[in-house]
């Protein structure tokens, strides 16, 4: 299986920083995601933009994966373009979920394949709210999809805001 790591966002809510390179537990978030993704996928492609330049060294030197550049203007547009040029199945991962576990990724992939739909999306349920985490499994072309729900837990934090980053750092300190 191929993994596509979406790492081209502008990090607006974090002050226009190169979000994938933000350190969580003393390591850039993208490194957390790359190492876990490569445990469940045979190969990975990292999608970057002008906003996230500087990550290429991770692709070439540390993880031996490909980096591709997108416009970085619109997530759905960038993802759609990449999906048409890559072989399925494709696991799509956001670069800002540093605590996701390998076992949870394996469970999602298994449930997605068992659902026998074109696309499976990872949905987090917290109280009465449902939130898409940005993880998807594209098995084939088509428009039939299934939402696979998981109860919220700290490992499902998506670092998008300063508050999320503070919470992630607190989690690092609690684990030490």
Automatic annotation (TrEMBL):
Keyword GTP-binding in record: no
Q: Which is an annotated Pfam family here?
A: NTP_transf_3
Upper taxonomic lineage: Archaea, Thermoproteota, Thermoprotei, Desulfurococcales, Desulfurococcaceae
Domain named MobA-like NTP transferase: which ranges? 3-125
Q: What is the source species?
A: Ignisphaera aggregans
Under the heading SUPFAM superfamilies, the entry gives: Nucleotide-diphospho-sugar transferases (SSF53448)
Transferase as a keyword of this entry, yes or no, is yes
What is the protein name given in its UniProt record? MobA-like NTP transferase domain-containing protein
Which keywords label this protein?
Transferase
Question: What InterPro entries does the entry give?
Answer: MobA-like_NTP_Trfase (IPR025877), Nucleotide-diphossugar_trans (IPR029044)
